[in-house]
Amino acid sequence: PTLYYYFSSKEEILAWLLRSLLSDLSIDVAYIVGRDEPARDRLGAIIAAYPQMFADHRDLCAVLLTDLGRITRIPALADATWAAFHGPVRKLLDDGEHDGSLCGTDNDLTASAIYGAVTMVGLHHILTGKPVDPPAMSERLDHLILHGLTPAPERTIR
Description:
- By secondary structure, this protein is mainly α.
- The protein is built from eight helices and no strands.
- It has helices spanning 3-6, 10-33, 39-56, 58-66, 68-71, 76-99, 107-128, 134-147.
- Helix 2 packs parallel to helix 6 (76-99), helix 3 (39-56) packs antiparallel against helix 6 and helix 7 runs antiparallel to helix 8 (134-147).
């Protein structure tokens, strides 16, 4: 009952929790975006930051992600998600086109696809009870996102 003194509904509690989580993530992401290195490397660092968030806040992420139906009805969260992930990733995709470290794509669609990939992998680990191993998750996601499912070229043995 004490919570409802400060919040009028479960949606408000969830919104506050998610905004807080996204605010912390956006600080980390802003630092990564501002680094002086190729956009491809910065994108890899953002891909690594997201699984780390799942590991650091597993219970909170479980609550938030398993209640996505409620969360999607909270319009302010779209802005927080854009600020914490989509906007910075979109910027890095643009930067990557200019510095030659990434190829040009539909950057809005690509940013959404990357967000979906990292979110669903984190959710999968939470729902199945698998441990969240940020380095392993980010390495696999980085490879999948940046190289797809194309097999590596065969090496010629001389």
